[in-house]
Design brief:
Layout lengths: L1 H30 L9 H11 L3 H10 L4 E6 L5 E7 L10 E5 L10 H10 L3 E5 L18 H16 L4 E6 L1 H10 L7 E7 L5 H12 L6 H14 L8 H5 L6 E6 L8 H9 L5 E6 L7 H4 L1 H16 L2
Parallel strand pairs: 3-4, 3-5, 5-6, 6-7, 7-8
Antiparallel strand pairs: 1-2, 2-4
């Protein structure tokens, strides 16, 4: 009997150790990829041009003319965080300010198509940051939007100090959309009037579980609990608390929800979860037919611009 008890203890210890090891692996795999930040800038410059040809030339020409500028602030947990900002095409008639937030593994270059849309087509001033552990920003891990919201709240004030507008919209794609939704539930200045989220996930744990099924189907769901514990110990937050839907329940300002119905990375089902979670204030939904992940603009550029423009005009009329 004692032998069986000892064997049981050994097996339990092995399972616990393997669970801890798997949790550490999953946390490292998801939150600290080896290639990131400045080392990955060139790939993302090419990606920006693939999403909208000529984007980096547009960026470089404005920067050479000293129209597009860089700024750095001390962000959450004292990491230095970087952003670019550019005035509206016609600054004297600017419609407001947009903050554009990039996705997982990307940086401020990738969503230049949105920066160009806001500046050149909608005549908005734009600030577009590098989230921590991305681009030119410091950071010790990818924060999945949860802690990033604190930096975005700092950038809101910075952008307001630069452009002095009384109308601001936050627009994010993928992880950037989750960041925007997570930010929307916090107390914000009155001049933050609207949000646009494009293919954001409903919660970090739901998204990581989808990634687990897609990439590590043989790994049991319980590994996420171990990875969350590791992340909580290392960085101060866990997967279950990092929730777009919980934050949306506290949001009472207008939001446009966008998602492609062919998205199998952040599943299309997340759109309805997010939309339903926002129970207060005005909201709209646009389903981009046949669009895969973060592909709505590339597939329907003119409709995308028109829908965002119409949404913002409607908000201004409220």
């Amino acid at each position: 009997m004692k032998r069986f008890f000892k064997l049981g203890v050994v097996l339990f210890a092995v399972l616990m150790l393997s669970g801890c090891a798997a949790g550490k692996f999953m946390s490292n795999y998801a939150l600290t990829p080896s290639v990131h930040g400045v080392a990955d800038i060139e790939r993302t410059r090419h990606k920006a041009d693939s999403l909208l040809p000529g984007s980096t030339h547009w960026y470089d020409s404005l920067k050479a003319a000293d129209i597009l500028k860089d700024t750095v602030i001390t962000g959450f947990r004292d990491f230095k965080v970087h952003a670019c900002y550019v005035p509206a095409k016609d600054p004297s008639k600017a419609e407001g300010t947009a903050i554009v937030v990039h996705g997982y593994g990307d940086n401020h270059f990738v969503f230049l198509y949105l920066v160009r849309m806001y500046r050149d087509d909608l005549n908005y001033n734009v600030l577009f940051p590098d989230l921590q552990y991305h681009g030119y920003s410091e950071g010790d891990h990818i924060q999945m939007g949860w802690y990033d919201r604190y930096d975005i709240e700092e950038w809101i004030q910075v952008a307001h100090n630069i452009f002095k507008d009384d109308f601001m919209v936050l627009h994010g794609v993928s992880m950037g959309a989750a960041t925007v939704m997570m930010t929307s539930g916090d107390p914000l200045p009155e001049y933050v009037k609207a949000f646009v989220e494009d293919c954001g996930y409903a919660s970090v744990v739901m998204q990581f579980n989808e990634n687990r099924k897609q990439t590590f189907a043989f790994v049991p769901p319980s590994v996420l609990q171990s990875a969350s514990v590791v992340t909580k110990h290392r960085y101060g937050w866990g997967f279950w608390e990092a929730s777009s839907v919980k934050q949306l329940a506290k949001c009472d300002r207008p939001m446009l929800f966008i998602h492609g119905d062919a998205d199998d990375f952040v599943p299309f089902s997340h759109l309805q979860k997010n939309y339903d979670a926002k129970v207060n204030g005005y909201k709209e939904m646009w389903v981009a037919k046949g669009a895969v992940h973060a592909n709505a603009f590339a597939k329907y550029p003119e409709e995308y611009k028109a829908r965002v423009s119409a949404f913002l005009e409607k908000v201004k009329g409220m």
